[in-house]
Amino acid sequence: MAEAATASRAASAEWFRCPACSAFVYHKRLRRNLGVCPDCNHHFRLRIRERLGQLLDEGSFQELSGELEILDALSFADSKPYSERIAQAQKKSETRTGAMHGTGTIDGLPIVVACVDFSFIGGSMGGAVGESITRAAELALQTRTPLLVISASGGARMQEGCVSLMQMAKTSQVVARLAEEGVLFISLLTDPTYGGVSASYATLGDILIAEPGAHIGFAGPAVIEQTIRQKLPDGFQTAGFLLEHGMLDLVEPREGLRRTIRNLLELHAQAEAARGEDAATLAARLPQADGAEAIVDPEQLPERDPWEIVQLARHIDRPRMLDLVGYAFDGFQELRGDRLFDEDRAIVAGLARLGELTVMVIGQQKGHSTSELVEHNFGMPEPEGYRKGMRLMRYAARFGLPLVTIVDTPGAYPGLGAEERGQSVAIAESIMLMSRLPVPIVTVVTGEGGSGGALAIAMGNRVLMMENAYYSVISPEGCSTILFKDASAAPRAAKALRITSPELLRLQVMDAVVPEPQGGAQADPAAAGANVKAAIVAGLRELLALSPQQLIDQRYERFRKFGTPGNQPSLPPITGET
Questions:
Q1: Fewer Cβ atoms within 10 A, N terminus or C terminus of the chain?
Q2: What is the CATH superfamily name and number for domain 276-559?
Q3: Residue 381 above 90 pLDDT?
């Protein structure tokens, strides 16, 4: 149902009817609730100044778009001249062009902001709208200030013809410059965001956030149904639909938007402040870690039965990736989606604080309960998980963020759909991308390290493993079936594969081993998490002293040596085996 008026006009009447649930809401209550229906959570459309008033510090907005004018380059007329439509829209929306940009602050953190008003000819992007967004982006680039663009649009403006079409090119190319220079661009998608706006700057943000229920897409649902002659599923093109299909980072209710954007700005302010600092200053940003030091001498590790280690690595109560993130980092903002097909929950990733350093964390997540294991596909990523990881690896490189990866997977998911969508290609590209990232990478194998599915996020400058984790070219069960022709020979295969921490430390596959509490990490997850934190901090403290090229070169040499005659250590034969 089309909205009869925006939330901003509710104050002119005593009661306002929600177009979603038909409930009548008193206008003062609606305003106190930020324009969100208290009965059904419908987010009403906001005018520009209302939106900015909710997000920015009071009195901080300085408008810079006052001189912009709409140009009628085509002298267009349909049922009425375009100039007449502009005059009507200006009166209705109380804006000159339907867009506004300027500077402001959120909790004192500076930001450049641009906003589009849907009440102005459907928020369509004409020359003046594109100019406002472009000028905002150019100012953000010039001052290295994060950019926030708030979109609400039906698409390109037909009355301006190809001049409108060119705004897609103009805005996209300035966003490319922001990306090249490592200036943060947050895109907030509100209801609706369609057509030439969604197919240009609006979906090119480093972070894409949408309000609940916002409709977002290229072609509208009526056009799609008419074209394909099929009924669309419920919820199609809503923010929740896009989140499930990997197109958004976050769907955030209006009440949490300011807090979320503020947290993102703070994380990036830390990253920006760290640019160009010397190694000692960067190292000082790291916290003091109270955990036990990682072990580099394999003789200090107890020799345990490999099959027992496998069982400990798989223990249902063993701390998982998100558990360890909670213990090791001082804050975590998850980012979602591969921007291509799906949101794969087997890989979880996001920005985290480590002392005064902002890092990117990417890891494989399993869970503890049946529902958690199913949600995260038992830690077995599909191609979309690896592609999400690669998207955020590039994000880390763009902003100079150290990367921490956490490995805990029995292997990449071996399903029909995964093969159809390029599982091998996704793994190969992830390995290749990580090998050339110009930022420090610390990898920790915390549970199962299963084959290429693990290696895809394990190309670190420092590769560590927890004491009771294992890392292998194949699962013991798979090896026993293929080579020993006996599925029950998995314990024997585990021993033959040399998959435990002391053996991998001797082979130099691992740089160090993170000690675990007596009885395994599940016996004291907090202590295990503290040890992981200490190992990550120690690894980063060493790596922050290296230049981007030195990091790439060191990583190359680290993996270059394996299998090279004279460079590869070997282990003595296992006695008593046939």
A1: C
A2: 2-enoyl-CoA Hydratase; Chain A, domain 1 (3.90.226.10)
A3: yes
